[in-house]
Design a protein that fits this description.
Order of helices and strands: HHEEEEEEEE
Number of helices: 2
Oligomer: single chain
Strand order of the largest sheet: 3-2-1-5
Structural class: alpha+beta
C-alpha cells in the first residue's frame, strides 16, 4: 500500500509541474483573443452607431479602453502577468465610416513572450504577432 501511495504521489508531483507552462500559454491566448474581440467590437460599434470611438492604452494603469464621447464601452485591466512594454501608439480613433485615424504599434510582455499589436491606417485592419 505504501508503494502504491508513493507511485501516486510521484505521478501527481510530475503532473502539477507540467501545469504551469500550460496555464501561461492559455493566459496568453486568452489575452490575445480578448484584445482582438474588443477591437472588432469597437470597430463594429463605430460603424453601426455612426459614432467616433477612441481606443486608449494606458501603460501606467495597465488597462485599455474604448469610449464613445463620455461613454465607456470597453474597459479591460490586464492580468498581473501581462505588461504593456512599449510602442508608439497610446490611442487611436475609429471613425463612423470604420477608418482608423492613427497607425502604430503597441507591445506587451505576456509572461516571457513578447506580443506586438500593429494598427494600420484604413478600414480598421490590425495584426497581432507573438
Amino acid at each position: 500500500m505504501l508503494i502504491v501511495l508513493a507511485v501516486v504521489s510521484i505521478m501527481l508531483a510530475v503532473g502539477i509541474a507540467g501545469v504551469k507552462p500550460v496555464m501561461e500559454w492559455v493566459q496568453k491566448q486568452m489575452f490575445i483573443t480578448q484584445l482582438e474581440s474588443d477591437l472588432y467590437y469597437a470597430h463594429s460599434y463605430a460603424i453601426n452607431r455612426k459614432e467616433t470611438i477612441v481606443f486608449r492604452f494606458s501603460k501606467e494603469q495597465n488597462v485599455y479602453e474604448a469610449a464613445s464621447g463620455r461613454k465607456t464601452i470597453i474597459k479591460r485591466k490586464f492580468p498581473d502577468s501581462i505588461k504593456m512594454t512599449g510602442g508608439n501608439l497610446s490611442r487611436f480613433h475609429i471613425t463612423p465610416e470604420g477608418t482608423i485615424s492613427y497607425f502604430g504599434t503597441v507591445q506587451f510582455q505576456v509572461n516571457d513572450t513578447a506580443v506586438k499589436l500593429t494598427i494600420y491606417l484604413g478600414r480598421g485592419r490590425f495584426n497581432v504577432k507573438k
